[in-house]
């Protein structure tokens, strides 16, 4: 029996996915969480075999939480569940240690298939993402500018584009304001923008913001 934790801040979404998943006799929903704190508490107290994690959590970006979970539980499979298309976040999620990436528009049976596959120690990649990945390797698909960013730069970019101030970002990431400003300068250079307004527009045009 595969025990899973569903982490999403919307109760109706958790209920819907839970019902779909529970129809499979080999999977049981061991718990639910609506924020990062609840995810961490559940894993420390009970644990599970697979985490299904929404990329948009209220108290922490899902990718940031993923990074933390993989440091503490390196062998725990995490499937990222997102409203964003694969080309926007999937590659970055896999780089951070995700075992799978599923869009909320996917067929229900795809999530069940992904859960079973990652529980066996394998990665789950959808056919469409695999095809896009192959095209990028062959040089047929241009990579967006934000793919040049490091994990931390990408994280800071999203916070800036969402209206975060340097002091707020520094406190959230436990770094100095000077470091935040250094990241900001590198981000502007790599994404080829000259202002926060342009960066926000870039993020919106590339569907990087909720």
Automatic annotation (TrEMBL):
The keyword Phosphoprotein applies. One of its GO terms (biological process) is regulation of DNA-templated transcription. The modification 4-aspartylphosphate is found at residue 54. The keyword DNA-binding applies. Keywords: DNA-binding, Phosphoprotein. Residues 142-207 form the HTH luxR-type domain. Residues 3-119 form the Response regulatory domain. It comes from the Bacteria. Pfam families: GerE (PF00196), Response_reg (PF00072). PROSITE patterns: HTH_LUXR_2, RESPONSE_REGULATORY. InterPro entries: CheY-like_superfamily, NreC/VraR/RcsB-like_REC, Sig_transdc_resp-reg_C-effctor, Sig_transdc_resp-reg_receiver, Tscrpt_reg_LuxR_C, WalR-like. One of its GO terms (molecular function) is DNA binding. PANTHER family: TWO-COMPONENT RESPONSE REGULATOR. This is Response regulator transcription factor.
């Amino acid at each position: 029996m595969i025990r899973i934790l569903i982490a999403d801040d919307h109760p109706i979404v958790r209920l819907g996915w839970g019902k779909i998943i529970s129809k499979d006799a080999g999977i049981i929903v061991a718990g639910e969480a609506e924020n990062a704190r609840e995810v961490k508490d559940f894993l420390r107290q009970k644990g599970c075999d697979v985490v299904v994690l929404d990329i948009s959590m209220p108290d922490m970006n899902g990718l940031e939480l993923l990074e933390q979970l993989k440091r503490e539980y390196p062998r725990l499979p995490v499937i990222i569940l997102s409203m964003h298309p694969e080309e926007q976040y999937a590659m970055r999620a896999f780089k951070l240690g995700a075992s799978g990436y599923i869009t909320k528009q996917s067929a229900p049976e795809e999530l069940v298939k992904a859960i079973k596959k990652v529980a066996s120690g394998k990665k789950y990649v959808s056919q469409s993402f695999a095809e896009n990945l192959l095209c990028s390797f062959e040089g047929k698909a241009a990579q967006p500018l934000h793919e040049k960013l490091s994990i931390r730069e990408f994280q800071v970019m999203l916070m800036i584009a969402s209206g975060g101030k340097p002091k707020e970002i520094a406190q959230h990431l436990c770094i100095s304001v000077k470091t935040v400003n250094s990241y900001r300068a590198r981000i502007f250079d790599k994404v080829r923008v000259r202002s926060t307004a342009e960066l926000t527009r870039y993020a919106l045009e590339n569907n990087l913001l909720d």
